[in-house]
Design brief:
Layout lengths: L3 E2 L1 H9 L9 E6 L30 E3 L1 E3 L8 E6 L2 E17 L10 E20 L2 E6 L1
Antiparallel strand pairs: 1-7, 2-3, 2-6, 4-5, 5-8, 6-7
Amino acid sequence: MASLIYNSALRDEATGAIDYDTDTFYAMLVTSSYTPNKDTHDRRDDVTNEVTGTGYTAGGAASSVSVAAVDTTNDRVVITFGSVSWPSSTITARGCVYYKRRGGASSADELVAYNDFGSDITSTGATFTVASSTITKQN
């Protein structure tokens, strides 16, 4: 499965439900059993097969977000989700789901993107780190 932006994120951006400058975003890890669906998955409760293991907390961890200035030469803007780490963890993950965290029910948290690692990544009593990820919006 390739990395993707959930279609609902486009709608949520357009309606103001997602604001990359002010909202709180999280990164949660999923196993290879999760099959993302960019058309039908729109909230965190649609995400199945979240990672479990030592050093990992359900729901993931906070990820900082930065929005670059508009690049008028190339007609685009880049949104960057900062790196996230889970120290002293024993887990195996295939991908990372970024979402807007509202602090309540998972059915309220808007999905943004899925980052496919390309294969399972395992840590055994070590720090598991997801490098920063970018979304480029181009006109």
